[in-house]
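Entry 12.
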Amino acid sequence: MAEAKSGPPASLDDFFKSKAKKKPKATNMNAATEKPPEEEKPKVARPAPNPDALEGWERALRKDQDLLKACGLWIKEVDGDGACLFRAFADQLDGSNGSDHLAYRERCVDFLKAHRDDFEPFLDEDFNEYCSRMREPTAWGGHVEVQALSRALGVNAVIFQPTEAGRPDKLLSTCVEMVSTDEDSARCVQLSFHPQHHAGEHYNSVRCVDDNGEGAALCPSVTELKRRIADALKPPVKEEPASQGGGYAAATEAPPAAPVKKSPFKMR
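Predicted 3D structure (tokens):
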């Protein structure tokens, strides 16, 4: 015969009193927090980097740097982020290491739009679309933009192409000159063009050997720049030993030094 079920408890107190209290289980807190030791992963031996194993573009840039040094110049590198041309211009004229590149970009595009007839024939795309794209912060600018900036800012520009030159005595014959004002007195912006770079084609800023790279570049005129390069390429003068006579060096009087012709250009 089935056991009769008791009725519901009269209150909640009676309900909890009817429940047997369970003894809590002992817990090892240390065991709960301790983690099993991780297996040590085997270390993969990697070869030490070889400083001579440069990327192709780095080797090419080093070669270009050496070539310009032989001409009394040196390359001041700017970031290769698509704004290299405008960064190089900003470094030349403001010495800001290219941080003002956006202002130069806007000035360039404004000049393009204001002189549409001069530049549109050299473009392979719709002029308005080209100008809109060129306003983007990382749109790559080229020789067309160099020409526009030179005219807008009233300066001349020289683009050295050391890769094409191949040797120092060919640097001037392979450079691109953007002459928009007087060659003898106007400032000349100096750029270098590198067809092989980690981000593709690239422009850098170029300084004269006596320019420490701080502040705006010491921009000589086109005429002065060519004279400096020619002087740097001259072979060193060898001193002839004094002739011996009767055990004594022959006394010779040096000719008077020729007066130095001062350049009308004033270094800034």
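Annotation: Strands lie at 73-76, 156-160, 176-178, 188-194, 202-208, 244-245, 248-249. The longest strand covers residues 188-194.
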